[in-house]
Each structure stands twice: as structure tokens, then as C-alpha cells.
Amino acid sequence: MTAVEYVPGTWVAVVGAKVWLLLGAPPDAEVVRRCWDLVREDAELDDVLGAIVHEGFRAVGSFALVTPRRAVVRGGAGLVCLGADGQASRIDATGVMTWVDRNLDESIVQLRLTTGGTGPVLPLLSGVVLAAELVVSLGTVPEAVREEAGQEVVATTIVRSVPEPEPESRAVPAPQPEPARVTELLAQEPGGFIASIDWAAPVPAPAPAPGRAEMSETVLRTRVVTQDDTSMLISERGSGAPQVRAVKCQDQHLNPEAATHCRLCGGAVPAQTSFVAVRPPLGVLRLSTGDTITLDRNVVLGRDPHTDDRGNRANLVKVGDSTDISRNHVEVRLDGWDVLVVDLGSKNGTTMTQPGWSPQELAGHIPAVLCPGTRVTLSEDAYFTYEVASA
């Protein structure tokens, strides 16, 4: 039987019967309510993922979305998987600008969705709470395995480049919830949604170590993005060329502000203050015909591509005459520094093959992140590959 526990914190945890989500978003954000509506109705993981990315990655910078057999992790969230043999493995998106999507092994008996916070562990049946960690037990964990794995898991959930705090400062007790207060809040909020929890004291982050280390880079990667965060990218919906926050490598190539190595030349990116710049091309699409399309704006590909949106500056690319390809088959979208691919409800579907992975069919109208080297197939004879080094 599945059992869920949580550690109080500042992230939003959405807990259902078969989907668990740890979300870096304000608790009163509309995306939280949308996710809760889906999770409590036992929606599929892809449906919840679609709700998260609906407004783009500026709205939700980090999340861990998990079912018993699949996990999607982005930004500062992580997942620790514990097997019945006591072996723990971690899935995170460290050094990845997009997200990590993994199938999970059937032998996993415990899942720990974590942001690196510590504190008291409290039981949870379902609902929405503020948390630093979710612990989902899928099966019976032997006591000896639990004790041995517990030490290993704690070590793996520490944020990299942040020193482990002294034992006396590790756990910050949070006041226990009063049943009367829970009843009062649930009565005030329709659908059992608690917008804020005043008994969950925030867990302070460990103090930074003296010297540079990599603390500034870690903060940039793991911070929660809010609508008021003016240091994030400037909206592309306005007029003029899209602008982003950037840093430079030693060869003066522009990179995302959290980058440690250049996306073009692979060289180190020295510590520096990020700045606003016109976004450079994010790479190219190399078509099966040998032609290349520069990614300086969105691209719509199909048998006879068109757009009815007069404000859409997308590049329209014809990729064949076969009826296997829809008129508007697929779109490649640029969102900040991210490159997304979206099947536009095509008749015969779209397949994405990432380097080292099996082909995966795209869900209609749900964006998927393209990483360099990914091939997107529209039909047997029509495909393209996303490349960065040629930008």
C-alpha cells in the first residue's frame, strides 16, 4: 500500500493517489490549482506536465513530477529512488537546461522528491501542502534497509557545493498542525485546497561557505521563479528582438546565466554578473533534405504550413508532399534559452528520439524539450535533427 510523508518547507507539494508533484511556484499561483484538479482526478502524468508547461518555463522554473513508473525532473528539484536491496540512486537536472524524463524500475520501493531541505517528517494522505520533501513508500521497506538507506539518501539530497550544516542546526522543528485549524482552512477553501499554511515554518538554507566555490551558480539554478523576478528573461511577446539574461565564455559566446560551460565551444564560463542581451540563434534544424533552418524564431513544419495568428512570426517550412504529413504538423518553439517541440495535433503523430534513448511518440499539443542531437520524425522520409554547435 502506498504511503506518503512530507517535510514542511516552502515548495508546493501536490499529492494524489498515483501522481506526486513538488513544484517551485507560489502557492496561490493558478498552475497549482490546475495541477491539483488533475491529480485528484487521477490524471495521467502527461496531462499534469502539460498544465505545468502551459505558461512556459518562466512561470515554473523547477519541479519533480513522479508516478510509480516514471519521473520528470527540472531545475532545483531532485528524486532519490530506493530499491528493496537498499541501493539508492538519484535523478536530477543538474547541468541540464531542459528537463530529465526517466522510466522507473519496478523494484523501487521508495521515492523521495526533494529540494534539499530537512525537518520533521509528517504523514499526508492527499492534498496540497508547503513542503521541502515528499517521501512516497510504494512497498515494504525492511527496517535494516530503511536505516542504511536513510543515511545515504540524506547525503545525496544535499545541494552540490553547499556545505553540510552542523548536526545541531540540521533540523528546524516546525509546530504541529492543530486539527481545529485544519478544519477551519478546509472549510474556507473549496475543493480542499489550502492556499497557505501558517503553521509550517520555513526551513532556512544552510549558511554559505566562505570563498567563491560554486554558490552563486547553485543559487541561480535552484531558485524558485516568480512573476516578480525581474532578473529572469524578458518576455518575447513584446515587440523587438527577444532578450535574455546571459553570461559569456572566454571566447565571448553568449550562454544562459546558470551555465558553467559554453553551449557552443564547451569552454568554461567564468564567474560573472549576468546581463541582458539580444538572444542569439539557439541552433539549427538540419532537415532530412540536407537543408538547415536557423533557430532565431519559432518554426512551423508541415506539408503546407500556415498560421492564422497575425502576431506569430514563425518561419514556415514545407517538408514534403506526402499525405502522411499534416499541413501544420509540428512546431519548434523558442522559450527563453529553451527549444521546445510541439506536435500540432497531426494525423499520424510525431516521434522524438533523443541521443541514447528509444523513440518516443509526442503527446499532441504538449511541449517537449529538445536537447542537442535529438531527431524529430514526421514521416518515414521527413525528419529533422536539432543541432547547437552550428548556430
UniProtKB/TrEMBL annotation:
<dbReference type="Pfam" id="PF00498">
    <property type="entry name" value="FHA"/>
</dbReference>
<protein>
    <submittedName>
        <fullName>FHA domain-containing protein</fullName>
    </submittedName>
</protein>
<dbReference type="InterPro" id="IPR000253">
    <property type="entry name" value="FHA_dom"/>
</dbReference>
<feature type="domain" description="FHA">
    <location>
        <begin position="299"/>
        <end position="353"/>
    </location>
</feature>
<dbReference type="InterPro" id="IPR008984">
    <property type="entry name" value="SMAD_FHA_dom_sf"/>
</dbReference>
<keyword id="KW-0597">Phosphoprotein</keyword>
